Amino acid sequence: MDETPMEARGTPLDFDALVEGEQAALLRLARRLVWDGEEAKDLVQSALADAYEKRHTLRDPKAGPAWLRRILVSRTMGHLRRRRVWNLVREVLDLGPAPVPSPEERFAGAERWRAFGRALRTLPAQQATAFSLHYLEGLDLDAIADAMNIGRGTVRIHLYRALQKLKAADALQGDTP
Known about the structure:
8 helices; globular; mainly alpha
């Protein structure tokens, strides 16, 4: 990988403009991946800090949005793995119930949506991420593969398995996204 800063290659990166243009989409993506508004904000801030430190490695400014998405997805997947481990430890040690769901999860008349969210959270991190990126964010398979840094075929496998598990849990009914 060419470590020459973009400024030296003649293609300057306006990091502030990139962040300003993508921050709302990143926050929306993070919310859909972790289902908690405060956690999502923290993850976006951490991902942007990582991106700022690595901004000199971005070769093409046009790839900036996908690059930021990849950083956020990577950080979120690590967070989901750690959270899942902590929930298992909490149950084993009988430390009490998990934290109360966020207000976003409790909006009026959305029992079906909450059931879907619970079912999605039971999926392995990669399956949940692939599902969220495809069905909730509307990304195509190639964009998901790029964001998750995996092959297109692997994305298809994660999507298939996620759909099978969600159908088995009766989380996908009617017009549920």
